[in-house]
Amino acid sequence: MSSQDAEAIVLPLRSDEDVVRLRQAVREQLVSLGFSLIDQTKIVTAASELARNTLRYGGGGEAHVGKLESNGRRGLGLSFIDQGPGIENVELALADGYTSGGGLGLGLGGAKRLSDEFDIQTAPGKGTTIRIVKWKSF
Ligand SMILES: Nc1ncnc2c1ncn2[C@@H]1O[C@H](COP(=O)(O)OP(=O)(O)O)[C@@H](O)[C@H]1O
Ligand SMILES: [Mg+2]
């Protein structure tokens, strides 16, 4: 995880309450970085979807939330990490409407569209790490 900074906050994702806490922490960081309300909503939504997937499909895990700075731009980086079953077919999982668990199948694709950067590291039996980044527009 190259751009994961040392001072990232680590939050457990083991329960619905943890997802609520994650949403609050992400909102606070976005506010303190001066993100617009619409960008706050986008990234809290993306974070919420990914956190729910970590819980539901990954068997729980953790989120890392950290401020970023690059070329004078500031942003927020979020990683969702689990040691669950992994995703066999990433392209299929990203497709709108695909769900293996009776959901709406919009979480992964939606999170990708709402973020500036989106990266999945996953393999069957090896768990899943999804990282998103949102940069503050000038
Ligand atoms: N952390 C994860 N570990 C394993 N599989 C996952 C994970 N996140 C997503 N998936 C797979 O990707 C599919 C699509 O996810 P998503 O778009 O959020 O839809 P939904 O949550 O409604 O099923 C899930 O149904 C699941 O099969
Ligand atoms: Mg989902």
From the structure above, extract its key features:
138 residues, globular, 5 strands, 4 helices, 5-stranded antiparallel sheet, alpha+beta, binds magnesium ion, binds adenosine-5'-diphosphate
Low-pLDDT sequence parts: none
Integer average pLDDT: 95
Helix tally equals 4
> What class would the helix/strand composition place it in?
alpha+beta
Major sheet: 5 strands, antiparallel
Strands of the biggest beta sheet: in what spatial order? 1-2-3-5-4
Question: In total, how many beta strands?
Answer: 5
Helix content: 25-40%
Provide a descriptive summary of the structure in words:
The chain has 138 residues and is an alpha+beta fold. The protein has helices spanning 16-33, 37-56, 90-94, 107-114; strands at residues 9-13, 61-70, 73-82, 117-123, 127-135. The chain has a five-stranded antiparallel sheet with strand order 1-2-3-5-4, covered by helices on one side. It is globular and about 40 Å long. The mean pLDDT is 95. The structure holds adenosine-5'-diphosphate (ADP) and magnesium ion. Magnesium ion binds next to α2.
